[in-house]
Amino acid sequence: MRKLVVALALGALAVGAHAQETIKIGVITDRVGVSRPYSEPNTEGVVFGANEINQKGGILGRKIELLIEDDQSRPDISAALARKLVDQGVVFIISVSLSPAAQQQQTVTMEAKTPQMTPTNSADYLTTQLPNPYFWQTGPLGSIQIATLLSHAKSKNFKRVALITDNSELGQAIAKAFKGTLEKAGIQIVAEEVVARGATTAMPQMQKLRAANPEALFLAGVLTAENVLVFRAYKELGVKFPIHSSYNLSVPVYETVAKGLIDGITFVDAYDPDKPEVKAFEAAFRKATGKDPQNMHGYGYDGIMLVADAIRRAGSTDKEKIREAMQKTNYAGVMGAKGMKYSFPDGKRAGFDPNGMVVRVYEKDKQGRVVHVGQK
Amino acid sequence: MQDFLELAVSATASGCIYGLIALAYLLMIRPTGIINFAVGEWAMVAAFGGHLLLSRWEWTYALGMAAVVAFMMLVGWTTERVAVRPLVERGAPILAPILALLGVLVITREAISVSFPPDPMPVPFPFGIGRLEFAGIGGSYQTFFIIAVTLAVFIGAWLFFEKTLWGKSFEAVALNRRAAALMGINLSRVTALSFAGGAGAAGMAGLLVSPNISAHYLMGVPLAIQGFTALVIGGVGRVEGALLGGLLLAFAEQLTARYAPIPSGYTQGVPLLFLMIFLLARPTGLLKARA
Amino acid sequence: MIRVAAWVGGFVALAALPFFLGSYHNDVYRKLLLWITLALGYNFLFGICGQVAFSHFAFYGVGAYSVVILTFQAGLPLPVAILLGVVICVALALAVAIPSTRLEGFYLALVTLALAQLFIVVLNEGGNVTGGAGGIANYRLPLIFGWRLAGPPYTLVVVALLGATLAILWRLDHSWFGRACRAVRDNPEAAAAMGVDVVRTKVIVFTLTSTLAGIAGMVYAFVDNTVNPPIFGIDNAFLILFMVIVGGAGRHAGAAIGAILLFLLPFWLAPVVGHHHQLVFGVLMLAVILVQPKGLIGIWDRCRDRFSK
User: Smallest Cβ distance to A224: which of B113, B131, B214?
Assistant: First the structure.
């Protein structure tokens, strides 16, 4: 009888010890809804990064276990899934779905005191609307994007510009950030247009822009089809003012879908293909998956790396220690200009270095060289 | 003034797309009374078909277009067989097939969503992206192509209804199903044809609009709503009404966006307000059916 | 007597459950109950009275946003905000219903579809009032008599809402009004001949169910303490319709079953079919209409009949 008890106890210990082995990290993504084109490569980046870490022995001697949930771009489901992950014992939640979903998850992580981060959302309000000390955002903020674009264009000394975006929530958020910064710099916005989802043409909006005669057009939209309509109208009307775009244009899909339309367009990006970290990442990703990565994969990869780095420095899976460690992050990732590090100085929780974006230009149909770095 | 002319050309092209979708609805509503909201998804399927045949496999445009339209007609016929005929034969209320077709809408969209990667896919232009100008009116090749094809389709549809025996039997069924059946018209064949035709029209719209907006899996619902608005405006009674409704809607949308002194975001509300006003004030549309 | 006891017992069980569930299951449970509430209301409008409308979810949003804006932006005390929100819902519903119900057929559906979309446009363009595309967060339920309701106790509010909604709809269903509604659904001309004021019935039903949806929205506003446009999007309008049809239109139990099934299905199916649960929904919807138009509740009835033979 005693042998049986001992055997059972040993067995239980073994099971318990095995169950304690993995570090659970939650990922909330969108597999079916409107943010799928961005969530999918982001998630692949996270998975690739986790596999890489595990192959090198994991964190603190334990392997990462990713618990991936699909919120269908429905923020109310998103919040429920955040609770599910918390109940399942995750020490960190990575949000790669819609910005409102990330915010709705915050109401949960704030209450449950669970660290949460988004490596990709760029809406400025995510770290300002809710005082959630457990949430960090390392995506390039809309305000950083416009500041970088402006510093590149400083020599041109714009006085009158136009703004165009779409009616998606991210497009609106980025446009708001653009507008705020432009107005603070004393630049007059002579026209503001919106292209609605499902439009068949952007001709009326472009005509209005032409009538307002701006010196440049700032593009804040994030819906591919609608942006392509803007480019078509631009070409058809033969207008000449330069287009400066948000980081949305850094997504490679434009190279196939907007052929012949994007030559000369300037855009901000957080991906410098000449950076040694990027080259290493691309080679490793290609080797592991056989596919070429795009910048979205890089955001996801940096996300999981930042989380792993914080846990390592915390030295434990205690959520409070992780929170403190995360706040002290100083990490060079794949995204960002050469030498950029993610950090959260002065208690801020948006960690993308304001000088960390680069400005690139489309040369014919390919994403071309880097013409400007940071905000100098 | 130049702005207005340019806008007129652009609005005409957009109106043609809406008109084709409205025609798709009309072809199915007239003989059966069934509103098929899946027409938007049908347009999307054709767009992806265009991408596959014309972009990826690089067939010649005429052949690819014909193949896609033929495929769409098959899709329409199949949908009718599977989702509509059993219900009609059972004598189910008209709501049943409408709801069944909503199910078809979701199934179609998901089927495309799982078969293709999530990014928008390019669809080539038949004539490239050049520009044509004459008599002060300018537009891209695609714009004129859209207008030309749409006119051809509508003339064909009009001739079909006015001049051919088949078309007349359509009208007969639309006016009075029972009487038509008594006169020996094969109801199920008419219904099958109407769905095939509707799918063909919707597919054509998808092929024509997708080089401009690319093929992506969320393009169906906005098209379905715009097409339906066009239908309501133009009226279900006559084929020409679909085109008229489409043009009116497109002109209203684009002229408002260009000239109305309200913030740009609110102009999205215009077609919706249009729809609501039309529904409440003149639900039968602008053109009455022939008596 | 036993029936009443059974009902009371059922609700006590529903109310007690949240205290035994973890926070995740509690959250899913609360949202499930809210969906059941919405489905019950929609079932009355569509299943019992035969009116197709796509604005049910928009009214959910109107209620939620109203109470949040009135309480936290306009600074009104909570009970006043709730009352005012109800007034807004009623006014909006009447404004839509009175002109549309003179038309027959699918027109109410279209007007309400347009309304639902307009609602989202207004939300997105609402600037600081509605929080624009990002919505409003960072608010909490005000203290009621010095008490903060959150977590399992707040779920009691949701249960109470469900109970009240069910009670109202049940009573109406089993009254002459319910019979009038069914008459309007099945044969409006005959109903009119029997002395039923068809238009007034439709308007009352639409206004009532839309306001109930609005009140549910007010309760929802404090579940996640966030409101934003994607929550109230147009896809949910179709989902509610699917729920009622799959469950069995015209029967309260059908609406509840449909809501439970279609709400929980993505959670259960995720490990099995991955993200293709929309496909499953479409197929289910089609299958139900083709095979058993009475919905799942029809299948249940048939099984019950077979067993009782």
Answer: B214
Rounded to 5 degrees, φ, ψ at A65 are -120, 120
Tally of structural domains, chain A: 2
Tell me which chain A residues have a C-beta less than 8 angstroms from the C-beta of B263: 192
Compute the half-sphere exposure of residue A327: CA atoms within 13 Å on the CB side of its CA: 13
The domain in which residue A368 lies consists of 143-269+357-373
Mean pLDDT for all residues in chain C: 85
Encode pLDDT of C156-215 as tens digits: 889 999 999 999 999 999 998 999 999 888 888 888 888 888 889 999 999 999 999 999
In chain B, which residues have their Cβ closer than 8 Å to the Cβ of A257? 119-122, 214
The model's pLDDT over A232-257, given as tens digits with 9 standing for 90+, comes to: 999 888 899 999 999 888 888 888 88
Note the pTM of the prediction, 2 decimals.
0.85
Q: Cα-flanking dihedrals φ and ψ of residue A360, to 5°?
A: -125, 165
Among C218, C233, C248, the domain-final residue is: C233
Closest CA to C250 of C308, C169, C190, C304: C169
- Kindly report the nearest CA distance between residue C6 and chain A, in angstroms: 31
Question: Cα dihedral sign for C264, C265, C270, C276?
Answer: negative
Q: Which of A21-25, A147-151, B43-47, C24-28 has the lowest mean pLDDT?
A: C24-28
Which of B213, B218, B254 is nearest residue A204 as measured by Cβ atoms? B254
- Using CB atoms, list chains with 3+ pairs below 8 Å to chain C: A, B
Could you tell me the CATH number of the domain that includes residue A59?
3.40.50.2300
- Among the candidates C233, C265, C299, a domain finishes at C233
Residues B266, C125 contacting (CB under 8 angstroms): yes
Pick from A199, A224, A235: which is nearest to B120 by CB? A224
Distance from CA of B45 to the nearest CA of A (A): 16
